[in-house]
Amino acid sequence: MYIAFEGVDTVGKSTQIESLAKLFPDALVTKEPGGTELGKKIRTILLEEGNLLPRSEILLFLADRSEHTERVVRPNLNRLILSDRSFISGIAYAHVHDDIEIDTLLQLNRFATADLFPEHIVLFHIDEKSLRERMGRKSSDAIETRGIEYMIQVQKIMEELVDLLNIDHIKIDASEPAESITEKLYSYIKDCQA
Ligand code: TMP
């Protein structure tokens, strides 16, 4: 079962994945970008070097996604897969950055994944004030430097996408205590597995 964790930076996706991995010791924990050997190199180019043309950036994220889907996700669909990000980030960040139509981005993502999308999405929501505070406390990568307005728009598109695509999902308020989020997600995953 393939579950993707989505939301803008600092919402607590990795913390939750780490806690859930302890509760589901057989789970495969992975991420985009950077879940494969090539993906790690692509991640460095995208986030540390930066300064790419918007379409080159999209194509590199898609190359990462293709490697990740075929080499990590597809061979392990019989296991619980907890992935930090997926095509939802792929579409939302690209749509807001370069104004490319959602339909076009969807087709590109279908091509990259050969139609394999997550079965369930955990979608985090953060209010603007908390996002500002959390972003102020950390250094930004090449994409985060686009600022708070950008990330708030990305979040809105993510929310629209999960509804539009009709993918089973749970929405999480990032301001809740981490332990109660973990409890909620534990029950959600158990229900998905039932
Ligand atoms: P993270 O792994 O620390 O979340 O960083 C990944 C960054 O890349 C984050 O700012 C979101 C961004 N991103 C895209 O712009 N497009 C994508 O397709 C993906 C997967 C991530």
In words, what does this structure look like?
Helix content is 57%, strand content 13%. The chain has a 5-stranded parallel β-sheet, sandwiched between helices. It has a single domain, classed as Rossmann fold (3-Layer(aba) Sandwich), CATH 3.40.50. The protein contains 8 helices and 5 strands, in the order βαβααβααβααβα. α1 crosses α8 (178-193) and α3 (54-73) packs parallel to α5 (102-113). The chain has 194 residues and is an alpha/beta fold. The site of thymidine-5'-phosphate has 11 residues, from α4.
SS-based class: alpha/beta
Mean pLDDT: 97
CATH superfamily: P-loop containing nucleotide triphosphate hydrolases
| Sheet of most strands | 5 strands, parallel
Number of helices: 8
Highest CATH level, the class: Alpha Beta
Fraction of residues in helices? Answer: 55-70%
User: Cα-atom Rg, whole angstroms?
Assistant: 16 Å
In short:
Helix content is 57%, strand content 13%.
